[in-house]
Specification:
Residues 8-114 form the PhnB-like domain. This protein is an alpha/beta fold. Helices cover 28% and strands 26% of the residues.
Length: 151
């Protein structure tokens, strides 16, 4: 065997793969479209391989597929509040907010937007500070790093 086994996330978009790729290209700073295909006569994009921050995806745009649900989400660890705000605002503009950093994009894909700095607070060796951070997180929709610090 000369080729390594690979793992990619497959996403089935309900006839709007092209729109999803345009959204991801505008939202994520490290989006790469590797390949795409248009086998249908209506010109709609049916397949694509792409990556977001190095994570590989296969997308399909065949109409009538199952809807996305909260059983799976894509966790995006970002650096700093500015990046949390930028990505969160882009995803939720036509999507929806959830609790504790979860949100859905306009296509129904569930994301977690997590600042790397959150772990400093939720994983604090001081049990009281860690408990405060976890309690603060449970009250948040978009994660706000400053809210982990006792005032």
């Amino acid at each position: 065997m000369t080729k390594p086994t690979t793992l990619k996330t497959f996403l089935w978009f309900d006839g709007n793969l092209g729109e999803a790729l345009e959204f991801y290209a505008a939202t994520f700073t490290d989006f790469v479209l590797h390949s795409s295909g248009r086998p249908e006569a209506d010109g709609k994009l049916m397949t694509a391989e792409f990556s977001i921050h190095g994570h590989e995806f296969i997308g399909m745009g065949w109409p009538g597929g199952p809807k996305f649900n909260d059983a799976i989400s894509l966790a995006l660890t970002v650096d700093g509040q500015d990046e949390v705000d930028r990505v969160w605002d882009a995803i939720t503009k036509d999507g929806e907010e959830g609790q504790c950093g979860w949100c859905k994009d306009p296509f129904g894909v569930s994301w977690q937007v997590i600042p790397v700095q959150m772990r400093e607070h939720t994983g604090n060796p001081d049990p009281a500070k860690a408990a405060y951070a976890w309690a603060a997180l449970r009250k948040m929709k978009k994660i706000v790093i400053q809210d982990f610090i006792e005032g």
